[in-house]
Fold HTH-type transcriptional regulatory protein TyrR.
Amino acid sequence: MDFEFLNLLPNPSFVTDIKGNVEFQNNKMQVFVEKAETKNIIHLLMDQTDDKFIFTNADQASYLFVKSELRDYGDFYLYMGIESSSIEKLIKKLKETEQLNRELDTIIENSYDGIYITDSEGRTLKTNTSIERITGIPKEYYIGKKVDNLIKRGILENSVTHKVVKEKRTVSIVQANFKGKETLITGNPVFNKNGEVEKVVTNIRDLSELNELQLALRKANELNENYKKELEKLKGGNRNIEGIIVSSQELKMVYETAQRISNVDATVLILGETGVGKDVLAKFIFNNSLRAKDGEFIKINCGAIPPDLLESELFGYESGAFTGASKNGKPGMFELANNGVLFLDEIGELTLSLQVKLLRALQEQEIQRIGGTKTKKVNVRVIAATNRNLKEMVNEGTFREDLFYRLNVIPICIPPLRDRRDDILPLVGLFLNQVNKKYGFHKILDKKLKDFLKNYHWPGNTRELANLIERMVLTTEADFLSIDNLPFEYRETSHINEMITDSLTLKEAVEFTEEKILANAAKKYDNTYEIAKALATSQPTIVRKLKKYKITIKQ
C-alpha cells in the first residue's frame, strides 16, 4: 500500500495492519522516534490498548495519538499525533470563556437598572428582570421585537437605539414610559472591527425610584425607640461570624459564589439539608456586603411561628389591629431590616396566603402593616433558605411558582457534610476547642475516633457533629477521648465496621451494614421520605429495603 500522502500531514503519524504490524511512518513520526529515549517507540506505542493515548519523547514533546480506521485502504489503522499542549490550551480558553459568559449574564440579570440590548437594526437580543419592574411588561415580550414596533404600540416614546447607530456615540434621553414613570435612558454603541455599530446596550433607570430613595435616605436616622428595642432583641450579638470552616473544594466553591454576589442586591435562595449551615452562609453574605455598614441582619424562622402570628411578625401591625395588639403598634421584620438583610429561614413552611403577601413585598419593595391603610417603602435584601424541594412543592401546588422564581434568582446549594469530608476534621478541631474553652477542659481525641468521625455519614450534618463533640466532652471523665466514649448508637456503628473487616463476605457485609443503617434511620426519622433524604436515595428504594429486612419505622 502507498501511504506516502501521510508525509503531507504536519503531525507525526504511522499506519499498522490489523495485527499491529507497522506498515508506514511519515517523516514527522520518524523525527519523533529519533528524539525518543528508545528506538522501539513504535512497539511501545502499539502496547497501548486504548484508541487514544499520550506519549512524551526525550524532548518532553507530548502528543495525543488517536487511532482511526483507514476504510478506503482495507484493514489498516492510522495513528495520528496531536500536540497535547495545544489541546489543553484550547480547553482552558474555552472554560475561561464560558465562565466569563456566565458572570456577564449574572451581572446583566442582577443589575437594578433595566438593561436592553439590540442589534444595529433595533432588534431586541437580550433584556433583564429589572425591565419588568420599570415597564410592567415581562422581559420575554421584548425578545426579537424591533424598537420601531415597540414605539408603534406605545411602549416606547422614541428610540435612543437609532440615534446611537446614526451618531455612533453614547446618547442619553429622559422620557416618560407608558406607565407614566420618568426614566433616564442611555444607549451605548458596541463597534465591530470595521468601526460599524454592531450592537447597542441601553441602560434604563427609573428616576422616580431614585427620588424616593433619596427621600428615604434623609429619613434613615429617624428610628424611634420602639425600633431600637426590637433590634436589640433580634441582633443577638455582634456581626462577626465565627465558626466558618472552608477546607473542602465543594464548600470553597459555595463561599466563593457567596463572596461574589455579596454586593449584588438580588434575592438569594440557600438550599441544603438540615444542619449544613445555611444561616452561617446567609450571615457571611450580609457581613461581606455594603449593607452591613448601615443595616441589620434580621432572621426569622418561618416554620417556628404559627401562621396567624407570622404575618404580623413579618409586616408589623398598627394600634388596635387585633385583640392584644400594642397600643403603639409594632414594626415588622421588613421594617426592622430596612437597608439591611432579612433572612427567611424555612421558607417552604409559608402558607399560600402569606406567600402572596411576601411576593408583593418583594416585587414592589413596599409593605403594609396589619390594620394599616398606607404602604411603606422598604429597602431590604431578602435571603431565603430551605431544606425542602421547592420545585416539587410548586408541582404539587403547595408553593407559588411566581414566588419560587422571585426567590430563586441566585440559588446556592450547600452540600451535606458526607459529601465534603475534608471539612469534618477541621470542624471537629473547631468544636472541640470551643467546648474546651467554654467549660475549662483540655480534652483531645485519639486517631481511631477521628477516623470514625471522618467516615461517619452524618445525617444531621454539622449540627449533629457539634452536638456529638459537646456531648462526649461533657459525659467523659478522661481527657483522652476514644471510640469507647462514643454514645451507644455511634459505638454500634463502629463495631459494625470491625465485624465487616474481620469475618464477613462482601455480600454479607453490604447487607449487614445496610440493615444496621436502615434500622438506626427508622428509629431517628418519622417516615420513609425523611429516611430517603438523609441517606441520599429514593423513597421507593427505602420502602423496598425496609420490607426486605422487616424493619418498621417508630410510631
